[in-house]
Design a protein that fits this description.
alpha/beta; TIM Barrel; 8-stranded parallel barrel; 8 strands; globular; binds 2-phosphoglycolic acid
């Protein structure tokens, strides 16, 4: 099954009210000249509602960066999937390596959050990826296949979702694997998805130092169904050429 590529921008903990103009500039450019792919922005939760209002009806989809597995309750500081949906988000990034590392999230935690996202009607974008040590030990495929098997619950059957392969050592480092290295992991992820979710066609995004000058090559790779972009998604002038490369 072929699906349109998805180019998603992860703003991480960046963005105040004056950053809304970047999303508006991107949206205007895509109204003038529509993209060949789906385009999503994942601003900090504090900006979602305002971004929904300022981009209303535009081509840019909006998502959160994480959610709590429970719908409500005594979880100070957490945000539920239902709250993201209520704010106007349609997607949510789950299991990003910064959450796995800094907040000690396990594959089981990620799987519970995926179920929460589905419960709230959000499309989960589930991140996997090996560390530098695992990469150097030649363990990338084994680690990533295990993460895919354990972070993606059966509840995803028949639902729309995406997977993002993000080698931890490539995130924010300016380093990327070779195209052959990216393809090897994407093919391994596709084979793993096919055993549990046959014919899902879920796009497999690559993430980690995607920039305007490497986007076309990466996006042309076998089984590369899009990109998850951090630093280069903060400004429309940097993000738009990546969208145009898809
Ligand atoms: P980067 O981040 O594009 O800044 O490397 C990617 C990500 O963390 O999703």
């Amino acid at each position: 099954m072929s699906t349109r590529k998805l180019i998603a921008g992860n703003w991480k903990m960046n963005g105040l009210a004056d950053s809304l103009v970047e999303a508006e500039t991107l949206s205007r450019a895509l109204i003038e000249e529509p993209a060949n792919c789906r385009v999503a922005l994942h601003p900090p939760a504090t900006l979602i509602q305002r971004m929904v209002a300022s981009l209303k009806g535009g081509p840019v989809e909006l998502g959160g960066q994480d959610c709590q597995a429970e719908a409500s309750g005594a979880f100070t500081g957490d945000i539920s999937a239902e709250m993201l949906r209520d704010a106007g988000a349609h997607l949510v990034i789950l299991g990003h390596s910064e959450r796995r590392t800094l907040h000690h999230e396990t594959d089981a935690d990620v799987a519970a959050k995926v179920e929460a996202a589905l419960r709230a009607g959000l499309e989960p974008l589930i991140c996997v990826g090996e560390t530098l040590i695992q990469h150097q030990a030649g363990d990338a495929v084994r680690v990533v296949v295990r993460q895919v098997k354990q972070s993606l619950p059966e509840a995803l059957k028949g639902r729309r979702f995406a997977v993002a392969y993000e080698p931890v050592w490539a995130i924010g480092s300016g380093q990327t694997p070779s195209l052959a290295g990216i393809e090897e992991l994407h093919i391994a992820i596709r084979e793993t998805l096919e055993t549990t979710f046959p014919g899902s066609g879920a796009p497999i995004l690559y993430g980690g130092s995607v920039k305007a000058d490497n986007a076309a090559e990466i996006l042309g790779g076998k089984e590369v169904g899009g990109a998850l972009v951090g630093g280069a998604s903060l400004r429309a002038a940097d993000f738009l050429p990546i969208v145009r490369a898809a």
